[in-house]
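Hi R.,

As promised on Friday, here is the backbone we talked about, encoded as structure tokens. Could you run it through your design pipeline when you get a chance and send me back a sequence?
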């Protein structure tokens, strides 16, 4: 079936899709759009529900540009062009995260979020490097490029974060190749075109 905006009262809110998350337990697809907010598609009924940013209402999305969606317990971590929120599907309300600290307020335009196998949330914040966050302790850590440290993250613009089958965390950068996180030393090893023969440094 093809879902298009404006094809009826029950339709998707925008053509430009940036993120998808399928909740198999409820047979629901969560759809993050560019400028159309968050959409909930109930597969069984075919019904759409739209969630949009409302200016001045902190319980709504911080932006209608959704970049990524990952599940956390019974909620969703929703990454947007203007920060991150915890979205509660039960009531459609958002709790905006990281607004109470100087470091946290740097998290604005988010390219990617992922939970690692230890339950740490990793956040790629455009221009600000990456952040790790522990929901259980509230600890937020920022990893930034340092020209004096060859084992700092190689670029403050990270496009994607993924964990492989061996538990390694990889960070795809915009212009500096690929970084591997080394938990024992809490730093990074870089792989790029010049040293390792990658086809491009933009990943």
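Update: got your reply. Pasting your designed sequence below so it's all in one thread:
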């Amino acid at each position: 079936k093809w879902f298009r905006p404006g094809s009826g009262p029950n339709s998707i809110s925008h053509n430009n899709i940036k993120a998808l998350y399928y909740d198999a337990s409820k047979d629901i697809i969560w759809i993050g759009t560019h400028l159309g907010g968050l959409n909930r598609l109930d597969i069984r009924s075919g019904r759409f529900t739209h969630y949009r940013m409302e200016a001045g209402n902190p319980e709504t999305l911080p932006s209608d540009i959704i970049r990524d969606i990952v599940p956390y317990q019974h909620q969703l971590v929703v990454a947007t062009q203007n920060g991150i929120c915890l979205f509660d599907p039960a009531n459609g309300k958002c709790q905006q995260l990281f607004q109470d600290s100087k470091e946290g307020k740097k998290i604005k335009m988010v390219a990617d979020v992922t939970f690692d196998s230890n339950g740490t949330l990793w956040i790629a914040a455009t221009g600000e490097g990456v952040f790790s966050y522990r929901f259980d302790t509230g600890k937020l850590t920022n990893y930034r490029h340092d020209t004096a440290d060859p084992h700092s993250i190689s670029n403050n613009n990270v496009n994607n974060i993924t964990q492989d089958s061996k538990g390694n965390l990889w960070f795809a950068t915009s212009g500096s190749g690929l970084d591997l996180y080394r938990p024992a030393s809490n730093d990074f090893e870089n792989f790029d075109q010049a040293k390792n023969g990658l086809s491009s440094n933009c990943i």
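One thing I noticed while checking it: The chain has a mean pLDDT of 96.

Thanks again,
M.
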